[in-house]
Design the sequence.
C-alpha cells in the first residue's frame, strides 16, 4: 500500500515546480516586454537621428549649392560684367559723341550693364548672407529689414538689442535667418498686411525670434493639412528640428498672426563658423597655394 | 443559522475567506465601470456567478450538506466565462477560433465527466467531484494564458505591462491554475464521505490560490481606468 504522506509530498513538489514555472513565465513576460520596449525606443532614436542627419545633409547641400551659385555669379558673371563696364568706359573715350543717337544708345547700354551688376550683387547677397557670418544674426536681420524698407508700401520694424544676442554656430544662425526670411516672405505674400514686426530676444537658455504682421491671419490647421500651402510651414519645422527648436503660431488674434521661434542657446560653441563669404574664401585659398 | 456560518468560518477560515474575497474585485470593477468593455463584462459576470455559487456552497457546507454539484457546475461556467474573456482579449483570429471550438468540446466533456462519476444524478448526498474536467480546465487555461502572454509581448500593445490590467488578471489565473493542475486529479478521491483520500495541507491549496488570484484580479481591475476601454 502506498503511503498517503508520500503522495501528498509528491503532489506538493509537482505543484511547487508548476508554480515556479508560472512565476518564471510572469517574470519573463515583464522582462521581455521591457527589453523589447527598450529596443523599440533605441530603434526609434536611431531612426530619428538618421532622419535628422538626412535633413541636415539636405540643408547643408542647399546652402552649398547657394554658395556655389553665388560664387559663380560673382566670379564669372560679375567679373565679365565689370570687364564689360570697363570696356564701355574705354569705348566712351574713343567714341564719336557728336552723333546724339549713338550717345543715347551708348548711355542706355552703360546703365543697363550697371543695373545688371547691381542685380547680380543683390542676388549674390541674398543667396549667401555675408553679414550673418561677419556680424551675426541681429546685423543680418537688420540688413535684411533695411533692404525691405526700400519698398515704400511696406513697413518693417526690427527690435533687438544686438549685444544681448550671443553669437551662435553657423548652423543655428543660418537656420534662424532662413526661418525669418521665410516668415517675412509669407507675410508679404499671403497676409495682405502692411506692417511686419520682427523681434529678436535672448535669455540665458534660449534665443527667441518673433515675427508678427497685421494681415488677415490664417487657419493653421487648414494650412497644415494642405499639401501645397503647408510646404513653408513644414520647411520651417524641418529646419527647426535640426537645431532642437520649437515654433508657436498665434493666428487667432485678429488682425494678423504672430510666429514665435525658440532655439536653445549653445553653451559651448564648437569650431569657428566656416566663412560664408564665397569670395574671401576663394581668395584665401589662392593665397595659401604655394607659388 | 448565523451560528452555523460562524462555526463554519472558524472551522474552514481559508475556504470561507475565498468566498468573500470575490467582493473586492467585484466592487472595483463596478466602481471603475469596467463592465463597459466586453472582456471585463465577462469577468464581471464570472465574479458574480462565482460569488453566488460560493455563497450557496458556503450556506450548504455550514449545514454539512454536499455542495459538490455546485462545484462541478462552477467548473463549466468558470471555463466558459474566463475563456470568453480571453476570446475578447485576443487580437489574433488564430487563437479565437480554436478557443471557441475547445470551449464547446470542454462543455461536452465536462457534462460527460459529471455523468460518468455520478450515474445517479438525483443522489445529491453522494454526488462526487469530476475526475478529469478540473484538470483539463487547468491545462487548457494555462495554455490559453500562455498564448495570451505571447500575443501581448509580440504585439507590444502596451507601453508598460505593469499597468496593463489583463497582465495582472492573467497572472493571477496562471498562478491559480498552476497550483490547481496537480491537486485537481486527486480532488475526486479527496472529496468523498467515505474512504476519502487524505490530502492534508494540500486541501487548502486551491482556496489559498483562489484568494491570491482574486487579489491579482483586483489589481488588474484597479488599473482598468488608466487604460482606454477600446484597447482590449
Sequence:
Amino acid at each position: 500500500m502506498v503511503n498517503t504522506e508520500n503522495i501528498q509530498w509528491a503532489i506538493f513538489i509537482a505543484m511547487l515546480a508548476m508554480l515556479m514555472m508560472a512565476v518564471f513565465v510572469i517574470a519573463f513576460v515583464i522582462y521581455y516586454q521591457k527589453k523589447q520596449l527598450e529596443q523599440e525606443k533605441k530603434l526609434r532614436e536611431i531612426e530619428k537621428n538618421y532622419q535628422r542627419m538626412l535633413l541636415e545633409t539636405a540643408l547643408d547641400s542647399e546652402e552649398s549649392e547657394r554658395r556655389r551659385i553665388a560664387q559663380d555669379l560673382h566670379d564669372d558673371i560679375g567679373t565679365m560684367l565689370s570687364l564689360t563696364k570697363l570696356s564701355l568706359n574705354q569705348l566712351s573715350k574713343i567714341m564719336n559723341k557728336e552723333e546724339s543717337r549713338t550717345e543715347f544708345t551708348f548711355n542706355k547700354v552703360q546703365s543697363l550693364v550697371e543695373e545688371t551688376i547691381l542685380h547680380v550683387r543683390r542676388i549674390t547677397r541674398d543667396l549667401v548672407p555675408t553679414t550673418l557670418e561677419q556680424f551675426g544674426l541681429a546685423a543680418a536681420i537688420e540688413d535684411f529689414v533695411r533692404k525691405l524698407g526700400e519698398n515704400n508700401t511696406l513697413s518693417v520694424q526690427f527690435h533687438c538689442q544686438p549685444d544681448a544676442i550671443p553669437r551662435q554656430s553657423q548652423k543655428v544662425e543660418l537656420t534662424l535667418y532662413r526661418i525669418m526670411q521665410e516668415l517675412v516672405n509669407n507675410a508679404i505674400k499671403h497676409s495682405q498686411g502692411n506692417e511686419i514686426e520682427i523681434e529678436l530676444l535672448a535669455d540665458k537658455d534660449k534665443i527667441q525670434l518673433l515675427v508678427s504682421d497685421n494681415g488677415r491671419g490664417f487657419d493653421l490647421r487648414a494650412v497644415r493639412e494642405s499639401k501645397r500651402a503647408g510646404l513653408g510651414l513644414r520647411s520651417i519645422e524641418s529646419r527647426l528640428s535640426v537645431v532642437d527648436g520649437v515654433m508657436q503660431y498665434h493666428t487667432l488674434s485678429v488682425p494678423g498672426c504672430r510666429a514665435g521661434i525658440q532655439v536653445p542657446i549653445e553653451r559651448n560653441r564648437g569650431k569657428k563658423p566656416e566663412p560664408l563669404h564665397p569670395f574671401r574664401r576663394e581668395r584665401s585659398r589662392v593665397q595659401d597655394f604655394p607659388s | 443559522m448565523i451560528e452555523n456560518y460562524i462555526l463554519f468560518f472558524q472551522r474552514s477560515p481559508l475556504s470561507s475567506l475565498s468566498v468573500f474575497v470575490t467582493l473586492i474585485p467585484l466592487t472595483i470593477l463596478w466602481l471603475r465601470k469596467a463592465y463597459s468593455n466586453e472582456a471585463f463584462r465577462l469577468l464581471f459576470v464570472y465574479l458574480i456567478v462565482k460569488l453566488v455559487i460560493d455563497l450557496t456552497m458556503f450556506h450548504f457546507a455550514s449545514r454539512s450538506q454536499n455542495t459538490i454539484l455546485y462545484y462541478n457546475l462552477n467548473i463549466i461556467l468558470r471555463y466558459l466565462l474566463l475563456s470568453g474573456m480571453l476570446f475578447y482579449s485576443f487580437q489574433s483570429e488564430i487563437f479565437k477560433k480554436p478557443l471557441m471550438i475547445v470551449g464547446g468540446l470542454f462543455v461536452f466533456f465536462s457534462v460527460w465527466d459529471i455523468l460518468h462519476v455520478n450515474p445517479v444524478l438525483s443522489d445529491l448526498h453522494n454526488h462526487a467531484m469530476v475526475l478529469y474536467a478540473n484538470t483539463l480546465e487547468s491545462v487548457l487555461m494555462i495554455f490559453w494564458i500562455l498564448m495570451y502572454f505571447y500575443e501581448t509581448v509580440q504585439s507590444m500593445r502596451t507601453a508598460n505591462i505593469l499597468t496593463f490590467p489583463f497582465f495582472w488578471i492573467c497572472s493571477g489565473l496562471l498562478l491559480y491554475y498552476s497550483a490547481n493542475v496537480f491537486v485537481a486529479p486527486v480532488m475526486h478521491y479527496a472529496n468523498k464521505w467515505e474512504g476519502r483520500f487524505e490530502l492534508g495541507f494540500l486541501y487548502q491549496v486551491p482556496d489559498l490560490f483562489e484568494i491570491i488570484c482574486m487579489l491579482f484580479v483586483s489589481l488588474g481591475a484597479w488599473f482598468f481606468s488608466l487604460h482606454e476601454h477600446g484597447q482590449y
